[in-house]
Amino acid sequence: MGEIIEQAYLTFVGALSRAFFGAVAVYIMHAGLSRWREFETLYLQTEPRKPLARKMAGTLRFSKPGYRWGPLSGDLDANRRHPPVFVAVHRDGLTLSIVPPFKFGCRDLFLPFAKMTVVPAKWDLLSDEYAIRMDGVEGLEILMFSTIMEWAAQRSDVLALMLERAEHVRGVQAA
Fold this sequence. Notes:
alpha+beta, four-stranded antiparallel sheet, 4 helices, elongated
């Protein structure tokens, strides 16, 4: 009889431990994607679109404007990087999609060129990167590596002009 009670106790403790750590994991994923959801309210992709090109971008980061050194810059959420993200280029914008299984609770974003501004950005030790600012989302930028932005600009004349303008601004800032 004692063995049955001990086995029931161990089963209960194991189930409770798994439930606790599962709840913590869900909370961390939910909190870590809060900035993605800020963009989701305005730029949710509502219909499937056929892209001109699609590529895995590695990572991107949501951050406040300005020089970024993670938490040292005063932005405590600056280390929120979103691992593998697909970037799709369309005639009128970009689609961002987190790769499953990391996509937990995040829907695809469609960023129209008409509401987008591309600015030069610095990301940790990298100084030739780009940030996307969207109308309606104040105080946040989407940082992407320059290789992905240049790849996308080769497939979109509008984005190529935006990158050209950003490089001009970078040159003015350096002077």
